[in-house]
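Much of our argument rests on the idea that a fold can be written as discrete symbols. In the encoding step, the backbone of a single protein was reduced to a row of integers, each denoting a local shape. We regard such an encoding as a compact summary of how the chain folds. The record that follows shows the chain in one-letter code together with its fold in token form:
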Amino acid sequence: MTDPYKILGVAKTADEAVIRKAYRNIAKKYHPDVRPNDAAAEDKFKQASAAFALLNNKEERAKYDRGEIDAQGNAKGPFAGAGAQPGGFQGGFAPGGFEDISDVLSELFGRRTGMGGRQHFSQRGEDQNFLLDIDMVEAILGGSRQVRLADGKTLKIKVPAGVQSGRSLRLKGQGGAGMGGGPPGDAIVELRVKPHRFYQLDGNRVRLDLPITLDEAVLGAKVKVPTPDGAVSLRIPANTSSGQIFRVKGKGGSTTKGVRGDLLVRVMIVLPDAVDKKLVAFLEQEKKSPSDEVRRRFFS
């Protein structure tokens, strides 16, 4: 066996948790039950087991780090013959190391191996995570989407109404393949609601800034308003100020139980790009009170 640190892919300063994790990853990939009849994989597993057994034993690891023993546990240089075990512990199990290896394999495969022979292990496949962007209207009303999984398979999933950004949908048995006959994992699809170009979500309410013209604000009008469900008519009363909010009941967001909120429409007076000279002349003629009259409350 070469350098046990290199075999496990860890630094010489690695602590027990890092070493254990590195061995778990190798065992998960190269254990004979995962890759049966693969001599190369079995050899890698045996080397990793031997490396883990050495580095997981504090006393033997310290001796190795001081150069007193080699990777097989054999004494080196002046330490040869001074209590070293003949032949070291080739085969991968330093004194006290086998139980820890057995514990790791038990954690991985759900069954504990014994010295008398290898038992069959099985492990559930890993869950696989996916991110799916949906638009705000789809999040409010619900719908269905096609998702492509890691294996290339395409599935149709249902997007529930009232879903919030960050919610995950679990697709049973659509994740990574199991090992040693174990069941497959799940596919976990996280939903992310994209910002809308004019709607703003506020709980189960939706906010909308609606432009109106000056004559609509002064004279009143019926205007068309977009909602997640389609356009509706909204009556703007005469003498409406910019910033006034109107409520359209039941046309807002949705809870997961299907309860719809309201659409809150804030009207914003938009003046024409070109200056209307007749309008300017009219306003100059009709101007009756100082302009700061509307701001008096801020300074009284």
The domain at 199-276 is CATH 2.60.260.20 (HSP40/DNAj peptide-binding domain). Residues 81-98, 112-118 have pLDDT under 50 and may be disordered. The first strand starts at residue 128 and ends at 134. Residues 39-55 form the longest helix (17 residues).
